[in-house]
């Protein structure tokens, strides 16, 4: 939980428009958890879960600055 609080604090402090986290060690991120990390404001996000020893990817962005056009991933 400490790392999540640090991420949230950095997002707020620097007023970021996009945040990309790699090697995130979790199998699932739901909208509630993403909202808890992002804080206030309109945002969207995409998540690729960890597979084996490889960590996952989480990208969150300010919807007033960026727009999702597509999300894709490559399989093994």
Protein described:
With 76 residues, the chain is an alpha+beta fold. The chain has helices at 2-14, 31-38; strands spanning 18-24, 43-48, 56-62. The model has no long low-confidence stretch (mean pLDDT 90).
In short:
The chain has helices at residues 2-14, 31-38, and strands at residues 18-24, 43-48, 56-62. It is of the alpha+beta class and 76 residues long.
Class per helix and strand makeup:
alpha+beta
What is the strand arrangement across the widest sheet? 1-3-2
Q: Please provide the ordered H/E string of secondary-structure elements.
A: HEHEE
Anisotropy-based shape? globular
Percent of residues in helices: 25-40%
Radius of gyration: 13 Å
How much strand?
25-35%
Largest sheet: 3 strands, antiparallel
Query: What oligomeric assembly is this protein in?
Result: single chain
Q: How would you state the average pLDDT, rounded?
A: 90
Q: State the low-pLDDT regions, or none.
A: none
Topology overview:
Elements: H1 2-14, E1 18-24, H2 31-38, E2 43-48, E3 56-62
Antiparallel strand pairs: 1-3, 2-3
Keywords, separated by commas or semicolons:
alpha+beta; globular; three-stranded antiparallel β-sheet; 3 strands; about 80 residues; about 25% strand
């Amino acid at each position: 939980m400490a790392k999540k609080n640090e991420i949230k604090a950095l997002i707020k402090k620097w007023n970021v428009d996009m945040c990309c986290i790699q090697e995130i060690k979790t199998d699932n991120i739901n909208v509630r958890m993403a909202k808890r990390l992002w804080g206030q404001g309109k945002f969207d996000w995409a998540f690729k879960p960890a597979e084996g020893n490889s960590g996952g990817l989480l990208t969150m962005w300010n919807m007033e600055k960026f727009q999702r056009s597509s999300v894709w991933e490559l399989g093994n």
